[in-house]
Amino acid sequence: MANESAISLRDVKKSFDGGHEFVLKGINLEIPKGSLTAIIGFSGTGKSVMLKHLLGLFKPTSGTIEVLGTDLSTLNPDQLTKFRCNFGVLFQSAALFDDMTVLENVCFPLFEHRRELKPAQVLRIAEEKLHQVGLESKHYHKLPSQISGGMQKRTGLARALALDPEILIYDEPTTGLDPILTEMVDNLILSTHKLKQGVTSIMVSHDLSAAFRIADHIAMLDSGRVLLFGTPEDFFNTDIELVKKFVNKGMKHQ
Ligand SMILES: Nc1ncnc2c1ncn2[C@@H]1O[C@H](COP(=O)(O)OP(=O)(O)O)[C@@H](O)[C@H]1O
Ligand SMILES: [Mg+2]
Question: Which residues does the UniProt record annotate as the domain ABC transporter (predicted)?
């Protein structure tokens, strides 16, 4: 089947209070397979809530969500847990296990989900992922508290890559980082995206210049709706006032 969308949301609505306030008010979005898509928008507009729907952590009140051709509503909880292996996720905090070494953190999803692998194979894959994100082997046996913030991000990304996911999700990966670390993480997202043909990357970002620099598609959310979806060029050429305002404001603050 020729389905070029990695993700499609059709009229997705979500209310947490049983019907009055809608956080998502009818999201329609097709994220092309193999794209690096940035999700932008003011805070509180539903970006993280939308990502959690893609992961099946929230269920829509109405509407449908398809990921890699599968309608999430057809999966039972066990199937959903397995299906989540298609995703690699990196949040604002790297969310590493504090009492595990760098290497153990990256081995964890492999021991959990690839039980057929021998320990030596798990180690080899984990080391390969750590190498891929540029972490030197002298740090592999350190605890997260013994490495820098940048190395923690690299470790979190290596762990997200452990299961060779088809879709990578980043929720505000650089919020709160200094400019140098921000650029490092953005470049890492881009190089990771380019390394595996066909992988789909979705990044929620406050950082507009990064979104314009590295993303090939951008979706702007406002009050639970998609205000504009297009290429960076579409965003510069738009007539939609709110998008213009957001872009001008965001670019001035960089
Ligand atoms: N679990 C939840 N229960 C109720 N309301 C929530 C929940 N999660 C998020 N919200 C609300 O949904 C709205 C959008 O939140 P969010 O998606 O986190 O915004 P952002 O665009 O900044 O990521 C906010 O008003 C938030 O309070
Ligand atoms: Mg958010």
Answer: 7-248
